[in-house]
Amino acid sequence: MSDAQAEFQILDRRSFGRFLGLDDGDNTPDETTIWRFREALVRANAIEALFARFDSHLKSLGYLAMGGQIVDASIISAPRQRMTDEERAVVRQGGIPQAWAAKPARLAQKDRDARWTLKRGRRKRAGRQVHGRDRHAPVWVQVASRHRPAPRLHPHLVSQPCSAIWADTAYRSQKNERAILRAGLVSKIHFRRTPGKPLPDQRQRANAARSKVRSAVEHVFATQKHRMGLFIRTIGMERAKTKIGLANIAFNFKRFLYWECQPNSA
Fold first, then answer.
1. Do 87 and 183 contact (CB within 8 A), yes or no?
2. Residue 126: beta bridge partners?
3. Which of 5, 38, 179, 213 gets the highest tally of CB atoms within 10 A of its CB?
């Protein structure tokens, strides 16, 4: 939800107040307070440190992803940017349109990182493309683009104590396969069909078996984008990283509590 909506819900619902530890008569945070707190997190580059602390806590309790890492990517939407064709061409080249530069207030409201992209043949306003894994936060956030090479496996992914890497066909490239081999891991990346030729039966069966494991990562993005309503209203890459990072921390807390409440949990 937006900061303004968060303020309204805190004032309107006692459940929100109880969650925040607020009693009747306490000062409640308004939307400016929420924005300033998030800006402080951005300036402090706090998301990585917060996840490192959370990861250390998980490890101390015996939660280790020893079986493998499931890697995937998702596109997080952003508001439409109203601009002319000339302004769009300048932004794509990394510049600032002259009309924007003359009006700092207008420039501050323009996200020059967000782009249009294609997904399953349909155009989508894509603020950021998030690459993540099943248990932790997205390792990195990048600008989504229409034409992009196979996503690169971040070095942090192949340095984890695990045995294999699961991913869909988008991640199948010689560079990624070499990185997995150098790390002493097993590649469980889906096989890609040669254009104009059917996928051999053996590889179809291998992909089907890998899908049973890899599909578990899909509910992470689905929960954030649908149940949590993750939407990038901020401007700039660093603010987007913080916004998405906070959503991932909240999701991981939820999953951690779920496993802690299981009868056979560690």
1. no
2. 77, 115
3. 179
The residue ranges of every structural domain in the chain are 65-78+127-266
Q: Which of 15, 3, 18, 19 is nearest to 253 (CA)?
A: 19
**How do strand 186-189 and strand 140-142 relate by DSSP bridges?**
unpaired
pTM value is 0.68
Indicate the residue type of 199: L
Give one DSSP letter per residue of 192-219, joined into a string. Answer: PPPTTSPPPHHHHHHHHHHHHHHGGGHH
Torsion sign across C-alpha atoms 143, 147, 148, 150: positive
Each residue's pLDDT tens digit, 139-197: 444 444 444 555 677 666 666 667 888 888 888 888 889 888 888 888 999 999 888 89
Per DSSP, 62 falls in state: T
Does residue 187 contact residue 178 with C-beta atoms inside 8 Å? no
Spatial distance between the Cα atoms of 26 and 115, rounded to a whole number of angstroms = 42
Q: Which two structure tokens, joined as six digits, stand for 220? A: 């992470």
Strand-pair partners of 85: none
Best CA proximity match to 213, nearest among 165, 175, 171? 165
More confident residue, 63 or 155: 63
What angle do the packed helices 31-44 and 237-260 form, to 10 degrees?
Answer: 100
Contact of 243 with 234, CB cutoff 8 Å = yes
φ, ψ of residue 185 in degrees (nearest 5): -105, 170
Residues with Cβ < 8 Å from 24, sequence gap 6 or more? none
C-beta of residue 236 within 8 angstroms of C-beta of residue 258: no
As a whole number of Å, the CA-based R_g of the chain is: 21
Tell me, which fold does domain 65-78+127-266 have in CATH?
Answer: Nucleotidyltransferase; domain 5 (3.30.420)
pLDDT single digits (tens) 79-115: 666 777 777 777 777 778 777 777 777 777 777 666 6
